[in-house]
Amino acid sequence: xxxxxxxxxxxxxxxxxxxxxxxxxxxxxxxxxxxxxxxxxxxxxxxxxxxxxxxxxxxxxxxxxxxxxxxxxxxxxxxxxxxxxxxxxxxxxxxxxxxxxxxxxxxxxxxxxxxxxxxxxxxxxxxxxxxxxxxxxxxxxxxxxxxxxxxxxxxxxxxxxxxxxxxxxxxxxxxxxxxxxxxxxxxxxxxxxxxxxxxxxxxxxxxxxxxxxxxxxxxxxxxxxxxxxxxxxxxxxxxxxxxxxxxxxxxxxxxxxxxxxxxxxxxxxxxxxxxxxxxxxxxxxxxxxxxxxxxxxxxxxxxxxxxxxxxxxxxxxxxxxxxxxxxxxxxxxxxxxxxxxxxxxxxxxxxxxxxxxxxxxxxxxxxxx
Length: 369
Hints:
- By secondary structure, the chain is of the alpha/beta class.
- It has helices spanning about 15-35, 40-55, 65-75, 95-100, 120-125, 145-155, 205-215, 240-250, 250-270, 295-305, 330-340, 350-369; strands at about 60-65, 85-90, 105-110, 130-135, 160, 170, 175, 180-185, 200-205, 285, 290-295, 340-345.
- The model has no long low-confidence stretch (mean pLDDT about 95).
- Strands 1-9-8-5-4-2-3 form a seven-stranded mixed sheet, sandwiched between helices. A three-stranded antiparallel sheet has the order 7-6-10, with no helix packed on it. The protein has a two-stranded antiparallel ribbon with strand order 11-12.
């Protein structure tokens, strides 16, 4: 088949974002460069305070990646060798890798049809070595935090929310990261709140935890010449903080556009052979990803690409199936979904006509297959 003559519909459009914001971003970057303050500056503190206000959390500690946000969260809870942390295998590898990096063991539970943590299966995985639960709010859709927190309280377990994909997501009037002991966020360029490079942050309402992470991220420095304990280097650069301060002001507009895009997708993709989770009345999904589940997923992906429509898969190989994990366990829902999930373009720059074009081709494929 010949390649389509239509314009490409990109999966993400960071170039468009920069071209729209160029005038303002370059001004902010220049301002930081002229300040001569590039590490743990007023700009970083401004970002941390802005996140506290946005999240309604007492403390925010910025770090240099979402992975480090999880690692430092685990360390703040004294999770280490021999401990177990229950999480999901349908997440990005960083969720499990962070647990492994502190010497603990990631234990995987299965997921619900909407890719969120299955609280019933999660509770079955608890044993005497379990120290924490780490639900992953994948795609911008929050897990059932009522049930998860009830299980955590019942078994006296800590909770770290993996919020890498869920800034601004709401469950029963509370934002992601506001339920557990800590929330770990990423500001990777592909996230809804995105830096121009790696970045992340942690939110908590516990001052002791906050104080520990602030020291741990900066070699344990109390001041310039004294350290309380050995730490690491995981600091958000002032330039990235300036970019994030600018983009945080626009975040609600970005989320609103993504929600509208998702609603339009849902309206057009009403087909029993195309599954996408229903919207829950007590929640706000922020659609970092818009994921459908279909049979013949790989063929559909190729079909769309020939028609100049980019898609992605998050994630084709569950973590428990990766060579790095090297253990045989069964997670039926996780494994089945990994064969069917397909992420459609939902960035804030896609037009209604482009969404219509995507949907028309998907429906055509489903009818023919």
